[in-house]
Amino acid sequence: MSKPRLQLEPGPDAVSITELIPDNRGRIDDFYEVDRQDFLGEGSFSIVYRCVNRDTKQERAVKMIQRRLISNLSQVEREPNLMRVLDHPNVLRLIETFEDAKSIQLVLERCDGGELFDCIVDSSPFSESVAGSCMQQMLRAMAYLHANDIMHRDAKAENWLLTEDEPLAKAHLKLCDFGCARKLASGEEARTRIGSPYYVAPEVIQGCYNSKADIWALGVNLYMLLGGDHPFAGSNTEEVLYNVKVKELGKSMATLGMQTGSAISVPAQSLLLSMLSRKAEARPSALECLMDPWFLKGGKPKTGQGPGRMDDDVGALENLLNFGAPDGRLHKAILYAGALQADHKALRGLMRLFAKLDDSNLGTLGPRELASGLRQAGLMAGEEEVTSLLEALDVDGSGAVDFLEFVMGAIGNQHRSSDNAGWRIFKMYDLNSNGFLDRMEIASMLALPGVRENREASLVSSEKAINRILDQYDTNKDGKLDFKEFTVLLQQFGIDPQ
User: Fold this and answer.
1) In CA terms, which of 37, 219, 226, 306 is 20 to 30 Å from 396?
2) pLDDT in tens, 379-422
3) Bond prior to 202 in cis (omega within 30° of 0)
4) Superfamily holding 116-301
């Protein structure tokens, strides 16, 4: 089974999502209207507020991490550095970062449905169908992280967000808050005692653990979805941690779900007990959990989240099949930026379709998965055609199609021609928000390696490419592009600027 790669050695025309996320381009209040009276969440070191992009009017959230509360600033930098490379339908997306003397600010996708925890408090226990739908999404996100050697270490219900305000049965979940997350190479063990007491695995308390600790946390979430309460509840932290270390769940397992009319099924009990095994090595991996009999019925997931007929997705798959190979780095950067700027509300159907196609549950699509999806939709494509499609979509050179690359191909020209797509792309590269793209901003638009680390060296290395763009599109010869000039470039790539 192939593994997605986040650290790449890209070819000359590869464009990485890491290079497209703006970093500290000034004061956040110059670019976003931050509502400091309306906070979405609060942690030990941070507060999350609602905000709106002043130019594009896109609604976002901003996590403000207070410097005075952090003793180790390198740990603070770990969160945005990890989030920059993450690209999965069930992982919250980082939009850009700012910082000042008081705080580090992460601008994020805004999810208006609130926390999974609140749903559990208000409405649990849930049916196995609803719980299974949620758990599949959670496991897919975790399988993606673990395949890329990342532990989350705080996958509590408060850190799973609903993208929209709707019943949990229809909800799309996203994992947030990577403040505790870290890279962990295969065979390596972590020793920092970290996480939330109700969700922490026994081996974390002991101070020697690996990614199986995340499976324990998801097991706690599943128990809460089915039973409405924590499996290891206590009157104080000491009692909770004691219960984590010694409480047996066998007797209480059979009564789970009684409030919904019947006890949970034997397959559900079996999966839950395996995820909450006190022996970490006995716990299944996230990928193994996704193949558990509880999720499978006649070879198909019974919750409807996974592979199935593609009758409702023919249009998106036709767009994918007709996607032409981008003409060099500039074209790739423009199209990729359009996908990066798309709102999750507009991408709901594509998130569902991506999950259908992702048979491996690794968060990327290979040639076999692309061919299978096209075939199920009645769109025949030969091996060479599928290979060409993958090469066209794979803008970061990883050898597989990531979610935003899939979005880039599946939205088609119709979606790229709506919702002010051109203006949003322009403002994404207008780093100082002065209404023009200067030479440095054009270098950033090209997503050339080294722009973030060494701006002057990047200008020198990209001088010829920048001159070609200005010669072709800078009609008034002032050495920069305004939006009117930029629209000509966009139209060349099939994007309506309005």
Assistant:
1) 306
2) 877 888 899 999 989 988 888 999 999 998 888 655 555 557 78
3) no
4) Transferase(Phosphotransferase) domain 1 (1.10.510.10)
